[in-house]
Amino acid sequence: MRQGIVKYNNIKAGLLTEEDHGEYLFEYDEIYAQTYPNQFVTFQMPVSTRSYRSKRLFPFLMA
Fold it and tell me: What is the value of pTM for the model shown?
């Protein structure tokens, strides 16, 4: 498993995890979600307390 911190405007927005079986998981940081509920990292992933899962790396991280 590998993990990386995702920042938005130099503020910790969440945590990206590549799980051992190859899926990706993105979770917004709890404090970020409470403080910046309208500052999402991508339109497809609005700020939420739920996790986002994908079998491929999220496109916004491929730039």
Answer: 0.88
Q: How many CB atoms lie within 10 A of CB 27?
A: 18
Q: How far apart are CA 63 and CA 6, in angstroms?
A: 13
pLDDT digits 0-9 by tens, 4-60:
999 999 999 999 999 999 999 999 999 999 999 999 998 889 999 999 999 998 887
CB 28 within 8 A of CB 13: yes
The alpha-carbon radius of gyration of the chain (Å, integer) is: 11
Burial of 63 (0-12, 13-18, 19+ CB in 10 A): exposed
